[in-house]
Each structure stands twice: as structure tokens, then as C-alpha cells.
Design brief:
With about 300 residues, the protein is an alpha+beta fold. It folds into two domains: about 120 residues, 2-Layer Sandwich (Ribosomal Protein S5, domain 2), CATH 3.30.230.20; about 180 residues, lpxc deacetylase, domain 1 (2-Layer Sandwich), CATH 3.30.1700. It has seven helices and 20 strands. Strands 11, 12, 13, 14, 15, 19 and 20 form a seven-stranded mixed beta sheet that branches. It has a five-stranded mixed beta sheet with strand order 2-3-9-4-5, with helices on one face. Helix 1 crosses helix 5. Bound molecules: zinc ion (ZN). It comes from Marivita geojedonensis. Its EC number is 3.5.1.108. Pfam families: LpxC.
Length: about 300
């Protein structure tokens, strides 16, 4: 059965890119509502933005969605990953500014909030998107691929010049709470060399050494160092899970990303949904539901480090 959150969960913080203070609430929603953001600071007109792939606009540093009235919300990927990773299918996310709070730079605070109230079963069946044929997209930066598979599995590869990150690869089956145990506490990261350019472009204004892992060559500049030796690739997988959630339903398939990011994962979903024989939407039976990312998640599995 589909789920929502048991009760409203509130978060307050600053936006990673805007640096502006923001309040956000994850509120219960009915079956077949999906994940929808609502800009409560906007009084007139359509202030709701469905978290769907065809609402996403090109934005290399984060995932930004926009509605028909031009109302947007950005940096949705970590809270989206937390919702899908905890098995929440429906929620109204109310926010009083244009960017989701970054909190500690990972999805762990959102996961902790969701699991503290718990999920509520609704009376409609879960529908899933089953990948039927391989789709692949490329840019000059890298590539991403979705292939058929019995549940959501993921391979991710990154390669950075800074040796503090370097080459990292990871493979995970996202069934049975893997997201909460393995991915949710991994923080966003950036290269010290890129910080000035991002700031000059009006980005990363809320970035700190605490809410992002900053690396410079061999060195991790953030105090306390890394939460995992491969925290960077784990965070890229967290982002990919959040971006895949914009499919609007759980995906059954194998995702592979090679130096992929928000743009490539969104291109991949657009390619999938433009391929008529590439997927089918089906009801989810009990055996399948037990393999979805949110099945069997428990609060005590959040890594203690976060
Ligand atoms: Zn991220």
C-alpha cells in the first residue's frame, strides 16, 4: 500500500546556494497525491510544484523544479532521497522560500525526522515503474544508464583530480533500508578551487565547512574529516536516488552513473519516458514491495556519525 507521513515534520535552516533562512514542513497527503512542494511565501496564483522530472530545469549544482506560473523550488534532491529512501510515496512539502534547507549537507536529518513520526499506510496500492529496455544518455561530462532489473540497484563511478576524492566506485542494492544504512548520512562535497567561482556566480552562499565536505588536493578541509572514506560516491548515489524519485513512482531497474549528476539523471528519466517500450507502470505485489528502498527501514539504522 502507498504511504504518507504520520504527522507534520518541521525543519528550519538555510539554503545551500541562496544562504537564506527557510522553514520547511513535510505534511501528510492522500494516496495518489505524490510529492508536491508548496511555496507558502507566495500569496497569489499557483504556488504548488509537483516533484516530477518534467518540471525540472537545467541546473548543474542542484535539482530545481518549476511550475507553469514560474514558481520554483531548488535543491530538492536530499529531501526527495529521504522520502523515497524511507518509503514515503505522498507528501505536501510546504516551504517559505525558494530553496530547501541544507541542514548538515546530507539526507540524515530528513530521514531522522520522517522516522521519528513514522509512515502511515494509505488504502491505494503502490504503482511502480518497471524498466523494460536499456536507456542511456551521455554528455561531455559522463553518462547514465537505466537497465531492466528486479529491484532498484545502483552502480556509481566518480573520478576527481583532487586525491582526497580521486576515483571511487560503489554498487548497492537499494532494498531493505540500504539507503538509510549506507547513503543517507553522506554529505555534499566540493573542491576548494571551485568555491570562489561558485560564490562569484551567486551559488553556495550558504555553504560552510560543516554542511559540505570541502577538499583541496590531498586534504579534506572540513573539520572532523569524512564520515566514510568513500563519502563522495555515496553522496552521488544519494543524489541519484533523489533525482530518480522525480519519476513519480518507485523505479525497478539498474541505474549506472559514470561521473553523472543532476542533469544526466534528469536526461535519463526524460529518455526513459520518451521510449514507449522502455517501461511499464504496474501494481506492486507484496514480494516486490518488500524489495523497494523504503521497506523495512528502522530509525536505529541511521549511522551514529550523522
Ligand atoms: Zn547532493
Amino acid at each position: 500500500m502507498q504511504t504518507t507521513v504520520q504527522s507534520t515534520i518541521r525543519f528550519a535552516g538555510i539554503g545551500l546556494h541562496t544562504g537564506a533562512p527557510v522553514n520547511m514542513s513535510i505534511c501528510p497527503a492522500p494516496a495518489d497525491h505524490g510529492i508536491v512542494f508548496e511555496r507558502t511565501d507566495i500569496r497569489l496564483g499557483n504556488r504548488r510544484i509537483p516533484a516530477l522530472y518534467d518540471r525540472a530545469e537545467q541546473s548543474p549544482l542542484c535539482t530545481l523544479i518549476v511550475n507553469d506560473a514560474g514558481v520554483s523550488v531548488s535543491t530538492i534532491e536530499h529531501v526527495m532521497a529521504a522520502l523515497v529512501g524511507c518509503g514515503v510515496h505522498n507528501a505536501l512539502v510546504q516551504i517559505d522560500g525558494p530553496e530547501v534547507p541544507v541542514l548538515d549537507g546530507s539526507a540524515a536529518p530528513f530521514v531522522r525526522g520522517i522516522l521519528s513520526v513514522g509512515v502511515k499506510r494509505l488504502t491505494a496500492p503502490i504503482r511502480v515503474i518497471e524498466v523494460l529496455s536499456t536507456v542511456e544518455v551521455h554528455t561531455s561530462q559522463g553518462w547514465a544508464r537505466l537497465a531492466p532489473g528486479p529491484g532498484l540497484t545502483m552502480d556509481f563511478h566518480i573520478d576527481f583530480a583532487d586525491r582526497a576524492i580521486g576515483r571511487q566506485s560503489k554498487s548497492l542494492d537499494l532494498a531493505n533500508g540500504t539507503f538509510v544504512r549506507e547513503l543517507c548520512d553522506s554529505r555534499t562535497f566540493c573542491r576548494a578551487a571551485d568555491v570562489e567561482a561558485m560564490r562569484a556566480a551567486g551559488k553556495a552562499l550558504g555553504g560552510t565547512m560543516e554542511n559540505a565536505v570541502v577538499v583541496d588536493g590531498d586534504a579534506v578541509l572540513s573539520p572532523g574529516g569524512l564520515r566514510h572514506s568513500d563519502e563522495a560516491v555515496r553522496h552521488k548515489m544519494l543524489d541519484a536516488l533523489g533525482d530518480l524519485a522525480l519519476a513519480g513512482a518507485p523505479i525497478l531497474g539498474h541505474y549506472e552513473g559514470h561521473k553523472a549528476g543532476h542533469t544526466l539523471t534528469n536526461m535519463l528519466l526524460r529518455e526513459l519516458f520518451a521510449t514507449p517500450d522502455g517501461y511499464r507502470v504496474r501494481d506492486c505485489d507484496i514480494a516486490l514491495a518488500a524489495r523497494l528502498p523504503g521497506a523495512g527501514v528502522e530509525a536505529h539504522e541511521i549511522p551514529a556519525v550523522a
